[in-house]
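For reproducibility, we list the full input for the acetyl coenzyme *A complex.
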Amino acid sequence: MAQKDNEVREGLEGVVAFESTISHIDGTVPELVVRGYDINDIVGNLTFEQMSYLLLFGELPSSNQLTDFDAELKSLRQVPKSVLAFLSSVPKSSEPMSVLRTAVSMLGCIDSESGLNDQNSVLIKLKSLIAKIPTIVAAQARINVGETPLQPDLSLSHSSNYYYMVTGEVADEKTLNAFDAVLVIYAEHEINASTFACRVVMGTESDIYSSVVAGISAIKGPLHGGAIDGSMNMLKEIGSAENAENYVKDALAQKRKLPGFGHRVYRAGDPRAHVLKRMTLDLANSRNDSHWFDIALEAEKQMASLKSIIPNVDYYAAPLLSHIGFPVILMTNVVTSARIAGWSAHILEQYGKNRLIRPRAKYTGKSGLKIHKP
Ligand code: ACO
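The corresponding predicted structure, in tokenized form, follows.
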């Protein structure tokens, strides 16, 4: 529907801000298409490295291109010692997302060419952030539990090394496939709040690090990526499938928003949640532990019958990550380390055909007042 002059769309709902060749969401089907491929086709067929390449370059890599890309990402995994020193010095009570935001900002201060915005420099910095953010997340996870950060293992793939740096163990095939799929699923999602934030900053011709810091600042909020922590905490609070009905009824009666439910665009179902629900059930069955899945399923049924609200991507991603050993406090950081791939594509697209993003406000304040000098 065309926007009428001076019509306010609260929360920019339904406003089309850009043309983009990166991804498309259709909330009615519902579907998510990335660079022409349906998310259901992508998951299980593309690794995170392939997904990142697809996002950055617009097409799938040939086998040689993938080998080169993989080697380049590996060569960029190390983070400067001063960033590791910062991670060690920060109070343990700090929010992990605030720590990540500051560490990325610090990378920008250390990069003597942070302001160089030609296509090649931008691309190198974005690849570097895709490679380094997992190292930062893993280092802070280990420092928080009193362990020394692990060096990246260059013999391992992106996800395998990431898992290893967090847990100190090499993941078995099932765990690795699940973790890699989570990163792939979260990699890109059109013009959501954090992607928009990245594009707004890039639109001012600021630097890449500032743009990504804006994305991190936005995604950490509980209405956006931060909902994954909220989802897991909610499942813990519910405690058992039997408690789900009362919990959901009480929450709705108190007009509370349940984390992991609802979506601005997908009103009939989030295709990512469908995939993650299948994967979580599969993991629960294979580990003979359906505790979290049973609670989640019952609460989903209650939400459907009482308010017809769908689970979003975060709802089943939370128990899945919990199954494979990620603590709640790390979950939004994991989401961020995946979404950097999508942000990178949008930063490149914004920079490639930039126009300053500058919407208007409809003024509803006072008018005609005069200053009276005493
Ligand atoms: N729990 C309970 N009720 C909800 C929820 C929820 N999670 N989400 C929406 N509703 C209700 C609203 O109260 C409203 O009800 P009403 O018509 O009776 O007043 C109705 O559904 C429509 O909701 P809106 O607030 O208009 O939806 P909006 O598009 O503004 O918000 C949002 C979308 C922010 C995602 C919201 O659903 C929410 O807060 N969800 C919980 C947080 C969350 O899971 N966020 C992650 C989103 S996905 C991502 O970013 C990774």
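The radius of gyration is 21 Å. The chain has two domains: 31-221+329-352, 227-323. Both points were considered when choosing residues for closer inspection.
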